Amino acid sequence: MHAPVDPRIARHRVPALTFAVFLLLIAASAAVVFALELGATPARMAAHYRGGRFAPAKTLDGLLLVAVPHLVAMPLVLFAASHVVGWARAVSRRGFRALLALSFGGAALSIACPFLIRFVAPAAAWLHVAGFAGLEAALLAWATLLCAVFVPWRAAVRALPGDRPLPPAEATLAARVPSRARPGT
Amino acid sequence: MRFLVRTAGRPRSRAPVRMFIAFAALALAGWAVQRVREGGLVPAEVEAYYLGVPGGAPLGSAALWEEVHVGAFVQGFTLFVLGSLLVVSPIPDRVRRALLVTAAAAALCDLLAPFAVVGLGGWGAIRVATFVAAALSSATLLAVVAVRFGSEVGGARPG
Q1: pLDDT at A172
Q2: Which residues pair with A2 in a beta bridge?
Q3: Residue B59 lies in domain
Q4: Which residue of B has its CA nearest to A74?
């Protein structure tokens, strides 16, 4: 099956791929900071928040200092990535919803778990690991999908039955390449 | 996002976009002033910040990566929005691509430069150069978007 590259997608290639690179950097730096500061095991993570022999327990102010910026940043990043991927219809509706659930669920757990570990139960460290792993996987998936949609040799689309035909000037720009994704309007 | 970038027939999108551009300009100016006041234009002060006092320990890995983490979010998101606005501005493709790629590359170099300073045990000039490049390229991108966004194309006034 061959279909034209949608000029609407092609025009957004550079910003979308730039965003994908920064998404990967966000995910990589988050993973390193997580491992260096919280520790690789749930036991060390619980000690980090609840205090141990050498470190005091985290205070509510200290936890809020980290949580509040993330409450703004995480939804913004996930909204932007999911919006672009959804606009390009890069995945099925079910897959898209699953990825959304993984992303926002992972983000919610990553923000809530430090409070749970500190004030409710150290066992919530397991939940923190799971939530963070889910969020990291989701960030990688969004970056991969952005690349899959916007790299030149993949930015192909198949017209939907009700789609408006492209104007001649735009249609002449379109190249014919194998199609996997369909754009929204 | 679509509301922001698709201006044709949507005059109301121009006001919020202009407000975003104004705030982005203020953020960029604030960031630049902050960096300059912290010694970001003086290689010796950059080295002192990352390497500590002579004989002391350099800034830890976690602190370096935290700086990358925060910067990647702020710069990545801002560049993405500015790049999307550039797409609907009447600018030649080649210029548009060059502006965004230059700003993104400079921002990435600036984010990762501290690792070079710590790894090389000096060379604060690298971070000074990346800071200047990132600030100038981002300011240029922002200025072009501010001037060209919503301007007339082929006699029709989009948005």
Answers
A1: 38
A2: A178
A3: 8-148
A4: B73
In a domain, B47, yes or no: yes
Average pLDDT over residues A78-96: 88
Range with the lowest mean pLDDT among A125-134, A146-155, B116-125? A146-155
Residue B44 lies in a domain: yes
Look at A8 and B81; give whichever has higher pLDDT: B81
Q: Of A15, A30, A73, which is closest to B100 when you measure between CB atoms?
A: A15
Pick from B2, B73, B83: CB nearest A87: B2
- Nearest by CB: B83 against A15, A26, A77: A15
| pLDDT at res. A179 | 40
B146, B21 in Cβ contact below 8 A?
yes
Write down the pLDDT at residue B53: 77
Q: How many CB atoms lie within 10 A of CB A51?
A: 13
Q: Please state the rounded mean pLDDT for residues B15-20.
A: 85
Best A23, A29, A146 residue to mutate vs chain B (most B CBs within 10 Å):
A29
Distance CA B34, CA B28 (A): 10
User: Is B1 among the domain residues?
Assistant: no
The pLDDT score that the predictor gives to residue B8 is 53
> Each residue of B140-154: b (16+ CB within 10 Å) or e?
ebbebbbebbbeeee
Rounded to two decimals, the pTM is: 0.82
B-interface mutation test, from A8, A14, A23, A76, most B Cβ less than 10 A away: A14
Query: Residue B44's closest CA among B123, B134, B131, B116?
Result: B123
What is the number of residues in chain A? Answer: 185
Domain-located, residue B3: no
Q: Which residues, 6+ apart, have CB-to-CB distance to A77 below 8 Å? A: A23, A26, A139, B73, B76, B77
> What integer is the mean pLDDT of A120-146?
94
* CB crowding A134-146: b at 16 or more within 10 Å, else e: bbbebbebbbebb
Interchain proximity A32–B100, CB inside 8 Å:
no
Closest by CA position to B83, among listed B97, B69, B94:
B97
Does A23 sit within 8 Å of B77, measured CB to CB? Answer: no
How many domains is chain B partitioned into structurally? 1
